[in-house]
Amino acid sequence: MHLDDRLSIDTPEGVSIEVTLAGLGSRFGAALVDIVIQGVLLLVLLLALTMAGSTLSGDLSVFLMGVGALALAVIVLGYYIVFEALNGGRTPGKAVFGIRVASVDGAPVGLGAVSLRTLMRLVDFLPAAYAVGAFAIVTNSRNQRLGDMVANTVVIRDRMAAPPPAPLIEGKALGWDVSSLNDAELGLVRRFAARRHDLASDARRRLASDLAIRLRPRVAGGERLGDEEFLLQVLVEKEARR
After folding, report:
1. Can you tell me the distance from the alpha carbon of 116 to that of 18, in angstroms, rounded to the nearest whole number?
2. Which of 11, 5, 4, 22 is nearest to 206 (CA)?
3. 10 pairs with which residues across the strands?
4. Of 12, 93, 96, 235, which shows the fewest CB atoms inside 10 Å?
5. What does the alpha-carbon distance between residue 158 and residue 161 come to, in Å, rounded to a whole number?
6. Radius of gyration of the chain (CA)
C-alpha cells in the first residue's frame, strides 16, 4: 500500500474523520530501530550473565540460566508491551518515525490488544525479517500485519507535537442568542473543544466545519469568525448565560 493510505473513522460526535496509515517503509524503519535497541539490551544481559556465571557453579549456575531465559523473554516481548501500552502506542522506534499503534476506531490502544499483537510477532516474523507481516501489510486495505488483525489495531502516522492547549474556552461574551441550541448540540461543541488539540489538523478543520455549518443558521452573529472560533464563542456565550 502507499504511505498515504487513509482510514476513515466515525467519531462519537457522528462525524467521519480520516487518519493516515503508516506504510511498510516507516514500519520497517521503526522495527529496525527497536531491534537495534533490543540487541544492545540483550548484549548487556549476555555480558552480565557471563560474568556472573563465571563465579558460580552447580545449581546456582542452572538458576542463573533460568533467570537469563526469563530476562530474554522480557526484553523481546515485554519491550513492546511496556512501551506501546504505557507510551501512547509508541515504541522508541515508532516515536522516531512518527507513528503509533491505535485501535481501529481511533481510540488509544489497550493492554490486552498490545499483548495480543506482541505475541503474534512470533508468527509475523516468519520465516525471517517479518516476511509474513510485511506480506500482510502490503495486501491489507488497513496496512495491518497479522498481529493487528487479531488485536483489531492499526498503525497510524502521528501528528506533529501541538503547543500546550489553550483553556477550553476563553473570551468575552458578545451577546449572541444561543437559546435555540439544545443540550446535545452544545455537548458536541464541548467535546470538540476538549479534544481539538488531539486531532490531526485536517480532521480538526473538517469536524469544526461540519459542526459550524449545522449551528450557524440558528445563532445570530459570528459570520466573520472562522469555524473553530465560532464554536468556541458559542461556548463563551453559553457560559455567560449561566
Report:
1. 25
2. 11
3. 16
4. 12
5. 9
6. 24
Alpha carbon 214 to its chain's center: 29
CB 84 within 8 A of CB 114: yes
Could you check whether the bond before residue 12 is cis, i.e. omega within 30 degrees of 0?
no
Return d(Cα 68, Cα 84) in angstroms, integer: 24
Q: pTM for this structure?
A: 0.61
Question: Distance (Å, rounded) from C-alpha 10 to C-alpha 239?
Answer: 29
Question: For 28-46, what is each residue's pLDDT tens digit?
Answer: 999 999 999 999 998 988 8
Which amino acid, 45?
L
Is the Cβ–Cβ distance between 124 and 138 less than 8 Å?
Answer: no
Residue with cell 504511505: 3
pLDDT tens digit sequence for 182-205? 888 888 888 888 888 877 788 888
